[in-house]
Amino acid sequence: MAKDMTLLWGSGSPPCWRVMVVLEEKNLQGYNQKLLAFEKMEHKSQQVMDMNPRGQLPAFKHGNSVLNESYAACIYLESQFKSQGNKLIPDCPAEQALMYQRMFEGNTLAQKMADVIYYDWKVPEGERHDSAVKRNREALSAEVKLWEGYLQKVSGPFLAGKNFSLADVSVYPTIAYVFRYGLSEERYPKLAAYYNSLKERPSIKVSWPPTWLEKPQGEDTLKDL
Amino acid sequence: MAKDMTLLWGSGSPPCWRVMVVLEEKNLQGYNQKLLAFEKMEHKSQQVMDMNPRGQLPAFKHGNSVLNESYAACIYLESQFKSQGNKLIPDCPAEQALMYQRMFEGNTLAQKMADVIYYDWKVPEGERHDSAVKRNREALSAEVKLWEGYLQKVSGPFLAGKNFSLADVSVYPTIAYVFRYGLSEERYPKLAAYYNSLKERPSIKVSWPPTWLEKPQGEDTLKDL
Hints:
The structure is a homodimer. By secondary structure, chain A is an alpha+beta fold. Chain A folds into 2 domains: 5-80, 3-Layer(aba) Sandwich (Glutaredoxin), CATH 3.40.30.10; 93-214, Glutathione S-transferase Yfyf (Class Pi), Chain A, domain 2 (Up-down Bundle). The first copy, chain A, contains 10 helices and 4 strands, in the order βαβαββαααααααα. Chain A has a 4-stranded mixed sheet with strand order 2-1-3-4, with no helix packed on it. The model of chain A has no long low-confidence stretch (mean pLDDT 97). Chain A binds chain B through residues 53-54, 62-73, 75-76, 79-80, 93-94, 96-98, 100-101, 103-105, 107-108, 124, 126-127, 129, 131-132, 146, and chain B through 53-54, 62-73, 75-76, 79-80, 93-94, 96-98, 100-101, 103-105, 107-108, 124, 126-127, 129, 131-132, 146. Chains A, B: One of its GO terms (biological process) is glutathione metabolic process.
Protein backbone atom coordinates (compact mmCIF):
# COMPACT_ATOMS: atom_id res chain seq x y z
CA MET A 1 0.00 0.00 0.00
CA ALA A 2 1.55 3.26 1.12
CA LYS A 3 4.78 1.95 2.60
CA ASP A 4 6.77 4.77 1.02
CA MET A 5 4.89 7.34 3.10
CA THR A 6 5.52 8.48 6.67
CA LEU A 7 3.30 10.69 8.78
CA LEU A 8 4.23 12.12 12.17
CA TRP A 9 1.09 13.57 13.68
CA GLY A 10 -0.59 14.95 16.79
CA SER A 11 -4.12 14.25 18.00
CA GLY A 12 -6.68 16.96 17.30
CA SER A 13 -4.44 19.07 15.08
CA PRO A 14 -6.54 20.16 12.08
CA PRO A 15 -3.53 20.14 9.69
CA CYS A 16 -2.68 16.54 10.70
CA TRP A 17 -6.29 15.49 10.46
CA ARG A 18 -6.57 16.86 6.89
CA VAL A 19 -3.68 14.74 5.69
CA MET A 20 -5.09 11.63 7.38
CA VAL A 21 -8.49 12.15 5.74
CA VAL A 22 -6.94 12.49 2.29
CA LEU A 23 -4.82 9.37 2.80
CA GLU A 24 -8.00 7.44 3.66
CA GLU A 25 -10.01 8.92 0.78
CA LYS A 26 -7.26 7.95 -1.68
CA ASN A 27 -7.02 4.39 -0.28
CA LEU A 28 -3.49 5.05 0.92
CA GLN A 29 -3.78 3.10 4.15
CA GLY A 30 -0.79 1.29 5.57
CA TYR A 31 1.54 4.27 5.67
CA ASN A 32 4.14 4.50 8.42
CA GLN A 33 2.84 6.71 11.18
CA LYS A 34 3.66 7.87 14.65
CA LEU A 35 1.38 9.70 17.06
CA LEU A 36 3.32 12.35 18.97
CA ALA A 37 2.23 14.26 22.07
CA PHE A 38 2.20 18.06 21.84
CA GLU A 39 2.03 18.27 25.64
CA LYS A 40 5.33 16.40 25.88
CA MET A 41 6.78 18.78 23.23
CA GLU A 42 7.43 15.82 20.96
CA HIS A 43 6.78 18.08 17.94
CA LYS A 44 10.13 19.69 18.75
CA SER A 45 11.96 16.32 18.80
CA GLN A 46 14.87 15.65 16.48
CA GLN A 47 12.79 13.22 14.41
CA VAL A 48 10.31 15.99 13.60
CA MET A 49 12.94 18.73 13.17
CA ASP A 50 14.75 16.55 10.61
CA MET A 51 11.60 16.54 8.46
CA ASN A 52 10.09 19.86 9.45
CA PRO A 53 12.54 22.59 10.54
CA ARG A 54 9.66 24.63 12.00
CA GLY A 55 9.03 21.84 14.53
CA GLN A 56 5.38 21.49 13.63
CA LEU A 57 3.06 18.61 12.88
CA PRO A 58 2.24 17.07 10.53
CA ALA A 59 5.60 16.06 9.22
CA PHE A 60 4.88 14.04 6.09
CA LYS A 61 7.06 12.32 3.56
CA HIS A 62 6.36 10.50 0.31
CA GLY A 63 9.57 8.83 -0.82
CA ASN A 64 12.13 11.61 -0.57
CA SER A 65 9.58 14.39 -0.92
CA VAL A 66 8.66 16.28 2.21
CA LEU A 67 5.18 17.82 2.41
CA ASN A 68 4.66 19.28 5.85
CA GLU A 69 2.14 21.89 4.83
CA SER A 70 -1.23 20.16 5.04
CA TYR A 71 -2.68 21.95 2.03
CA ALA A 72 0.40 21.05 0.02
CA ALA A 73 0.15 17.39 1.04
CA CYS A 74 -3.59 17.25 0.24
CA ILE A 75 -3.32 18.75 -3.25
CA TYR A 76 -0.19 16.75 -4.05
CA LEU A 77 -1.76 13.44 -2.99
CA GLU A 78 -4.90 14.13 -5.02
CA SER A 79 -2.76 15.01 -8.01
CA GLN A 80 -0.48 11.95 -7.74
CA PHE A 81 -3.28 9.46 -7.06
CA LYS A 82 -6.00 11.02 -9.21
CA SER A 83 -7.66 7.80 -10.31
CA GLN A 84 -7.32 6.00 -6.98
CA GLY A 85 -10.01 6.12 -4.29
CA ASN A 86 -12.35 9.12 -4.25
CA LYS A 87 -11.89 12.03 -6.60
CA LEU A 88 -11.39 15.12 -4.43
CA ILE A 89 -11.25 17.91 -7.02
CA PRO A 90 -14.42 18.24 -9.13
CA ASP A 91 -14.10 18.59 -12.92
CA CYS A 92 -16.94 21.08 -13.34
CA PRO A 93 -15.25 24.51 -13.52
CA ALA A 94 -17.86 26.29 -11.36
CA GLU A 95 -17.75 23.61 -8.69
CA GLN A 96 -13.95 23.59 -8.84
CA ALA A 97 -13.82 27.37 -8.40
CA LEU A 98 -16.12 27.19 -5.38
CA MET A 99 -14.07 24.33 -3.97
CA TYR A 100 -10.78 26.24 -4.13
CA GLN A 101 -12.41 29.39 -2.80
CA ARG A 102 -13.86 27.61 0.26
CA MET A 103 -10.70 25.58 0.77
CA PHE A 104 -8.53 28.67 1.11
CA GLU A 105 -11.10 30.67 3.03
CA GLY A 106 -10.79 27.81 5.50
CA ASN A 107 -7.43 29.28 6.52
CA THR A 108 -9.18 32.39 7.76
CA LEU A 109 -11.66 30.38 9.79
CA ALA A 110 -8.82 28.32 11.28
CA GLN A 111 -6.80 31.45 12.07
CA LYS A 112 -9.69 33.26 13.73
CA MET A 113 -10.54 30.15 15.72
CA ALA A 114 -6.92 29.82 16.88
CA ASP A 115 -6.85 33.51 17.88
CA VAL A 116 -9.66 32.78 20.33
CA ILE A 117 -8.98 29.24 21.51
CA TYR A 118 -5.22 29.55 21.88
CA TYR A 119 -5.10 33.15 23.07
CA ASP A 120 -3.59 32.37 26.47
CA TRP A 121 -1.19 29.92 24.95
CA LYS A 122 -0.03 32.28 22.18
CA VAL A 123 0.05 35.57 24.09
CA PRO A 124 2.38 35.89 27.11
CA GLU A 125 0.63 36.86 30.34
CA GLY A 126 1.84 40.46 30.47
CA GLU A 127 0.63 41.14 26.94
CA ARG A 128 -2.96 39.97 27.29
CA HIS A 129 -5.83 42.44 26.95
CA ASP A 130 -9.57 41.98 27.43
CA SER A 131 -10.09 44.29 24.45
CA ALA A 132 -8.12 41.90 22.23
CA VAL A 133 -10.03 38.88 23.54
CA LYS A 134 -13.30 40.67 22.78
CA ARG A 135 -12.17 41.70 19.30
CA ASN A 136 -10.97 38.18 18.49
CA ARG A 137 -14.29 36.70 19.61
CA GLU A 138 -16.24 39.19 17.50
CA ALA A 139 -14.08 38.38 14.48
CA LEU A 140 -14.63 34.65 14.98
CA SER A 141 -18.36 35.19 15.45
CA ALA A 142 -18.62 37.10 12.14
CA GLU A 143 -16.54 34.41 10.43
CA VAL A 144 -18.65 31.53 11.75
CA LYS A 145 -21.83 33.33 10.62
CA LEU A 146 -20.32 33.64 7.14
CA TRP A 147 -19.88 29.86 6.98
CA GLU A 148 -23.38 29.24 8.33
CA GLY A 149 -24.56 31.40 5.41
CA TYR A 150 -22.45 29.49 2.89
CA LEU A 151 -24.09 26.24 3.99
CA GLN A 152 -27.55 27.82 3.72
CA LYS A 153 -26.89 28.68 0.09
CA VAL A 154 -24.88 25.76 -1.28
CA SER A 155 -26.76 23.27 -3.45
CA GLY A 156 -25.62 20.00 -1.98
CA PRO A 157 -24.52 18.51 1.32
CA PHE A 158 -20.86 19.52 0.95
CA LEU A 159 -19.01 22.84 1.03
CA ALA A 160 -18.60 22.97 -2.75
CA GLY A 161 -21.93 21.34 -3.59
CA LYS A 162 -22.74 17.79 -4.53
CA ASN A 163 -19.34 16.19 -4.01
CA PHE A 164 -17.10 15.66 -1.03
CA SER A 165 -13.92 17.52 -1.99
CA LEU A 166 -10.69 19.04 -0.75
CA ALA A 167 -12.80 21.92 0.59
CA ASP A 168 -14.38 19.51 3.09
CA VAL A 169 -11.05 17.85 3.82
CA SER A 170 -9.57 21.26 4.61
CA VAL A 171 -12.38 22.86 6.57
CA TYR A 172 -14.13 19.97 8.36
CA PRO A 173 -11.44 19.58 11.05
CA THR A 174 -11.85 23.25 11.97
CA ILE A 175 -15.64 22.93 12.09
CA ALA A 176 -15.28 19.87 14.32
CA TYR A 177 -12.96 21.91 16.51
CA VAL A 178 -15.38 24.80 17.03
CA PHE A 179 -18.07 22.35 18.13
CA ARG A 180 -15.56 20.56 20.36
CA TYR A 181 -15.04 23.98 21.94
CA GLY A 182 -18.70 24.44 22.60
CA LEU A 183 -20.22 26.22 19.58
CA SER A 184 -24.00 26.13 19.86
CA GLU A 185 -25.67 23.62 17.53
CA GLU A 186 -28.94 25.53 17.98
CA ARG A 187 -27.56 28.88 16.86
CA TYR A 188 -25.65 27.43 13.91
CA PRO A 189 -27.99 24.72 12.60
CA LYS A 190 -26.48 24.38 9.13
CA LEU A 191 -22.96 24.08 10.45
CA ALA A 192 -24.18 21.59 13.06
CA ALA A 193 -25.96 19.48 10.43
CA TYR A 194 -22.83 19.49 8.27
CA TYR A 195 -20.66 18.61 11.26
CA ASN A 196 -22.91 15.73 12.33
CA SER A 197 -23.53 14.33 8.85
CA LEU A 198 -19.83 13.89 8.15
CA LYS A 199 -18.94 12.32 11.51
CA GLU A 200 -19.75 8.89 10.14
CA ARG A 201 -17.88 9.23 6.84
CA PRO A 202 -15.28 6.44 7.02
CA SER A 203 -12.25 8.66 6.31
CA ILE A 204 -13.29 11.05 9.07
CA LYS A 205 -14.44 8.46 11.56
CA VAL A 206 -11.25 6.41 11.35
CA SER A 207 -9.08 9.53 11.80
CA TRP A 208 -11.14 11.07 14.62
CA PRO A 209 -8.70 12.50 17.20
CA PRO A 210 -7.91 9.75 19.73
CA THR A 211 -7.70 12.29 22.57
CA TRP A 212 -11.29 13.31 21.78
CA LEU A 213 -12.42 9.70 21.93
CA GLU A 214 -10.69 9.22 25.29
CA LYS A 215 -12.29 12.38 26.67
CA PRO A 216 -15.58 12.91 24.82
CA GLN A 217 -16.45 16.03 26.82
CA GLY A 218 -14.99 19.13 25.15
CA GLU A 219 -14.60 22.72 26.34
CA ASP A 220 -17.20 25.47 26.53
CA THR A 221 -15.03 28.38 25.34
CA LEU A 222 -17.31 29.13 22.38
CA LYS A 223 -20.70 28.37 23.93
CA ASP A 224 -21.86 32.00 23.88
CA LEU A 225 -20.47 32.81 20.42
CA MET B 1 -9.04 37.47 -24.44
CA ALA B 2 -10.15 37.48 -20.82
CA LYS B 3 -13.25 39.65 -21.07
CA ASP B 4 -15.17 37.31 -18.77
CA MET B 5 -12.79 38.07 -15.89
CA THR B 6 -12.81 40.97 -13.45
CA LEU B 7 -10.12 41.88 -10.94
CA LEU B 8 -10.45 44.54 -8.26
CA TRP B 9 -7.00 45.11 -6.81
CA GLY B 10 -4.80 47.28 -4.63
CA SER B 11 -1.23 48.34 -5.34
CA GLY B 12 1.46 46.43 -3.44
CA SER B 13 -0.86 43.81 -1.98
CA PRO B 14 0.90 40.43 -2.36
CA PRO B 15 -2.39 38.53 -2.85
CA CYS B 16 -3.43 40.90 -5.68
CA TRP B 17 0.01 40.72 -7.23
CA ARG B 18 -0.09 36.91 -7.29
CA VAL B 19 -3.30 36.85 -9.30
CA MET B 20 -1.96 39.45 -11.73
CA VAL B 21 1.22 37.44 -12.32
CA VAL B 22 -0.75 34.28 -13.06
CA LEU B 23 -3.06 36.11 -15.46
CA GLU B 24 0.02 37.35 -17.36
CA GLU B 25 1.74 33.96 -17.32
CA LYS B 26 -1.39 32.32 -18.74
CA ASN B 27 -1.77 34.98 -21.47
CA LEU B 28 -5.03 36.15 -19.94
CA GLN B 29 -4.48 39.83 -20.60
CA GLY B 30 -7.40 42.10 -21.35
CA TYR B 31 -9.42 41.29 -18.24
CA ASN B 32 -11.58 43.98 -16.67
CA GLN B 33 -9.71 45.55 -13.81
CA LYS B 34 -9.93 48.39 -11.36
CA LEU B 35 -7.20 49.70 -9.11
CA LEU B 36 -8.60 50.64 -5.70
CA ALA B 37 -6.92 52.67 -2.95
CA PHE B 38 -6.58 51.02 0.46
CA GLU B 39 -5.88 54.44 2.02
CA LYS B 40 -9.28 55.66 0.84
CA MET B 41 -10.84 52.46 2.26
CA GLU B 42 -12.07 51.55 -1.20
CA HIS B 43 -11.63 47.85 -0.32
CA LYS B 44 -14.67 48.30 1.92
CA SER B 45 -16.78 49.77 -0.91
CA GLN B 46 -20.03 48.17 -1.97
CA GLN B 47 -18.49 46.99 -5.24
CA VAL B 48 -15.90 44.96 -3.33
CA MET B 49 -18.30 43.77 -0.61
CA ASP B 50 -20.63 42.40 -3.29
CA MET B 51 -17.83 40.14 -4.53
CA ASN B 52 -15.90 39.66 -1.32
CA PRO B 53 -17.91 39.87 1.92
CA ARG B 54 -14.69 40.16 3.93
CA GLY B 55 -13.98 43.49 2.21
CA GLN B 56 -10.52 42.45 1.05
CA LEU B 57 -8.59 42.63 -2.17
CA PRO B 58 -8.24 40.99 -4.57
CA ALA B 59 -11.85 40.47 -5.52
CA PHE B 60 -11.75 38.29 -8.62
CA LYS B 61 -14.42 36.81 -10.82
CA HIS B 62 -14.33 34.43 -13.79
CA GLY B 63 -17.80 34.31 -15.30
CA ASN B 64 -20.02 33.74 -12.28
CA SER B 65 -17.29 32.12 -10.22
CA VAL B 66 -15.79 34.21 -7.45
CA LEU B 67 -12.20 33.48 -6.44
CA ASN B 68 -11.08 36.06 -3.90
CA GLU B 69 -8.49 33.90 -2.21
CA SER B 70 -5.30 34.44 -4.21
CA TYR B 71 -4.11 30.85 -3.84
CA ALA B 72 -7.53 29.63 -4.99
CA ALA B 73 -7.46 31.92 -8.03
CA CYS B 74 -3.91 30.89 -8.95
CA ILE B 75 -4.51 27.14 -8.80
CA TYR B 76 -7.89 27.45 -10.50
CA LEU B 77 -6.50 29.54 -13.39
CA GLU B 78 -3.62 27.13 -13.91
CA SER B 79 -6.07 24.22 -13.91
CA GLN B 80 -8.55 25.85 -16.31
CA PHE B 81 -5.92 27.16 -18.76
CA LYS B 82 -3.41 24.33 -18.47
CA SER B 83 -2.21 24.37 -22.06
CA GLN B 84 -2.25 28.16 -22.46
CA GLY B 85 0.79 30.34 -21.73
CA ASN B 86 3.38 29.04 -19.28
CA LYS B 87 2.88 25.81 -17.39
CA LEU B 88 2.97 26.69 -13.69
CA ILE B 89 2.73 23.26 -12.04
CA PRO B 90 5.59 20.89 -12.92
CA ASP B 91 4.79 17.31 -13.93
CA CYS B 92 7.77 15.71 -12.20
CA PRO B 93 6.40 14.40 -8.87
CA ALA B 94 9.43 15.48 -6.80
CA GLU B 95 9.44 18.97 -8.28
CA GLN B 96 5.67 19.20 -7.83
CA ALA B 97 5.94 18.18 -4.17
CA LEU B 98 8.61 20.81 -3.56
CA MET B 99 6.52 23.39 -5.39
CA TYR B 100 3.43 22.82 -3.25
CA GLN B 101 5.49 22.70 -0.08
CA ARG B 102 7.19 26.04 -0.80
CA MET B 103 3.95 27.59 -2.06
CA PHE B 104 2.15 26.92 1.21
CA GLU B 105 5.13 27.71 3.40
CA GLY B 106 4.90 31.09 1.71
CA ASN B 107 1.85 31.78 3.89
CA THR B 108 4.03 31.57 6.97
CA LEU B 109 6.57 33.99 5.51
CA ALA B 110 3.80 36.41 4.55
CA GLN B 111 2.19 36.13 7.99
CA LYS B 112 5.43 36.72 9.87
CA MET B 113 6.25 39.66 7.62
CA ALA B 114 2.81 41.18 8.23
CA ASP B 115 3.21 40.70 12.00
CA VAL B 116 6.26 42.98 11.85
CA ILE B 117 5.41 45.47 9.10
CA TYR B 118 1.77 46.03 10.04
CA TYR B 119 2.16 45.78 13.81
CA ASP B 120 1.05 49.36 14.54
CA TRP B 121 -1.75 49.08 12.05
CA LYS B 122 -3.04 45.77 13.39
CA VAL B 123 -2.58 46.29 17.12
CA PRO B 124 -4.43 49.16 18.81
CA GLU B 125 -2.17 51.59 20.66
CA GLY B 126 -3.03 50.49 24.18
CA GLU B 127 -2.27 46.86 23.36
CA ARG B 128 1.23 47.28 21.93
CA HIS B 129 4.25 45.77 23.68
CA ASP B 130 7.95 46.05 22.93
CA SER B 131 8.27 42.39 23.90
CA ALA B 132 5.81 41.42 21.15
CA VAL B 133 7.60 43.59 18.58
CA LYS B 134 10.89 41.91 19.52
CA ARG B 135 9.39 38.41 19.36
CA ASN B 136 7.77 39.10 15.97
CA ARG B 137 11.07 40.40 14.57
CA GLU B 138 12.93 37.33 15.84
CA ALA B 139 10.32 35.05 14.29
CA LEU B 140 10.60 36.88 10.95
CA SER B 141 14.39 36.77 11.11
CA ALA B 142 14.36 32.97 11.63
CA GLU B 143 11.84 32.61 8.81
CA VAL B 144 13.84 34.71 6.34
CA LYS B 145 16.97 32.69 7.17
CA LEU B 146 15.06 29.51 6.39
CA TRP B 147 14.24 30.84 2.91
CA GLU B 148 17.82 32.00 2.34
CA GLY B 149 18.79 28.38 3.12
CA TYR B 150 16.20 26.98 0.73
CA LEU B 151 17.66 29.05 -2.09
CA GLN B 152 21.18 27.90 -1.20
CA LYS B 153 20.12 24.29 -1.64
CA VAL B 154 17.70 24.31 -4.56
CA SER B 155 19.02 23.07 -7.89
CA GLY B 156 17.80 25.77 -10.23
CA PRO B 157 17.01 29.47 -10.26
CA PHE B 158 13.46 29.10 -8.96
CA LEU B 159 11.94 28.09 -5.63
CA ALA B 160 11.05 24.60 -6.80
CA GLY B 161 14.05 24.13 -9.08
CA LYS B 162 14.40 24.52 -12.81
CA ASN B 163 10.97 25.93 -13.63
CA PHE B 164 9.11 29.09 -12.73
CA SER B 165 6.01 27.78 -10.93
CA LEU B 166 3.14 28.65 -8.62
CA ALA B 167 5.68 28.61 -5.78
CA ASP B 168 7.35 31.68 -7.31
CA VAL B 169 4.01 33.29 -8.11
CA SER B 170 2.97 32.87 -4.48
CA VAL B 171 6.16 33.80 -2.68
CA TYR B 172 7.86 36.37 -4.94
CA PRO B 173 5.55 39.25 -3.95
CA THR B 174 6.41 38.67 -0.28
CA ILE B 175 10.14 38.55 -1.05
CA ALA B 176 9.81 41.80 -3.01
CA TYR B 177 8.00 43.25 -0.01
CA VAL B 178 10.72 42.41 2.51
CA PHE B 179 13.29 44.11 0.29
CA ARG B 180 10.95 47.06 -0.20
CA TYR B 181 10.96 47.28 3.59
CA GLY B 182 14.72 47.38 3.76
CA LEU B 183 15.96 43.78 4.10
CA SER B 184 19.73 43.73 3.59
CA GLU B 185 20.81 42.38 0.20
CA GLU B 186 24.28 41.76 1.67
CA ARG B 187 23.07 39.61 4.55
CA TYR B 188 20.66 37.61 2.41
CA PRO B 189 22.54 37.21 -0.89
CA LYS B 190 20.56 34.27 -2.28
CA LEU B 191 17.22 35.94 -1.59
CA ALA B 192 18.56 39.16 -3.10
CA ALA B 193 19.77 37.38 -6.24
CA TYR B 194 16.39 35.66 -6.60
CA TYR B 195 14.57 38.95 -6.03
CA ASN B 196 16.66 40.82 -8.59
CA SER B 197 16.70 38.10 -11.23
CA LEU B 198 12.91 37.95 -11.39
CA LYS B 199 12.35 41.71 -11.51
CA GLU B 200 12.64 41.68 -15.28
CA ARG B 201 10.38 38.69 -15.90
CA PRO B 202 7.58 40.15 -18.06
CA SER B 203 4.69 38.94 -15.85
CA ILE B 204 6.32 40.47 -12.78
CA LYS B 205 7.56 43.65 -14.43
CA VAL B 206 4.19 44.52 -15.95
CA SER B 207 2.40 43.95 -12.63
CA TRP B 208 4.96 45.77 -10.44
CA PRO B 209 3.03 47.84 -7.85
CA PRO B 210 2.34 51.27 -9.36
CA THR B 211 2.75 52.96 -5.97
CA TRP B 212 6.28 51.51 -5.80
CA LEU B 213 7.09 52.92 -9.23
CA GLU B 214 5.81 56.34 -8.21
CA LYS B 215 7.85 56.27 -5.01
CA PRO B 216 10.89 54.06 -5.64
CA GLN B 217 12.32 54.63 -2.16
CA GLY B 218 10.92 52.08 0.28
CA GLU B 219 11.02 51.85 4.07
CA ASP B 220 13.86 50.72 6.34
CA THR B 221 11.82 48.74 8.87
CA LEU B 222 13.74 45.53 8.18
CA LYS B 223 17.22 46.92 7.58
CA ASP B 224 18.70 45.39 10.76
CA LEU B 225 16.95 42.04 10.43
